[in-house]
Amino acid sequence: MKADDVEFLVGMAVQLDETIRKLVIEEQEIFEKLGDARVQELKEFWNQEFTGEEEADFKRSLDYWDKILIRTWANAQRARQTRAQVGQTLMKLNSHL
């Protein structure tokens, strides 16, 4: 792999780390707005612990901040997965050097 490719991956890892940090801060700010009880309900929803009917009812109760928190979790999950893939790729490259 070319040096430019490695540099790109390292830059991507740095950007993803920063994105993850920002999302964690955003998540904490939203937690404070929603309160512990609502966050717990949203975690149960996120973890798909509801039955089909409970989920449908719960979805109707979602407000703006609930949806923002769910979006934040989805973005954080995607960023963490991508960061892990970048890290694995870099480790493979380093083992070949």
How would you explain this protein's 3D organization?
- Helix content is 88%, strand content 0%.
- The chain is mainly α.
- The protein has one domain.
- The protein is elongated, with a radius of gyration of 18 Å.
- The model has no long low-confidence stretch (mean pLDDT 94).
Defining key terms:
97 residues, 88% helix
Mean pLDDT: 94
Order of helices and strands: HHHH
Q: Count of helical segments? A: 4
What is the domain tally? 1
Overall number of strands: 0
Estimate the global geometry from the Cα principal axes.
Answer: elongated
The residue fraction in helices comes out at over 70%
What is the CA-CA span between the terminal residues?
A: 10 Å
Percentage of β-strand residues: under 5%
Q: Which regions contain 5 or more consecutive residues with pLDDT less than 50?
A: none
Question: Major sheet: size, sense and barrel closure?
Answer: none
Over all CA atoms, what is the radius of gyration? 18 Å
Map the helices and strands:
Elements: H1 3-34, H2 36-46, H3 52-61, H4 64-95
Helix pairs in contact: 1-4
Describe this structure in a few short sentences:
This protein is an all-alpha fold. The chain is built from 4 helices and no strands.
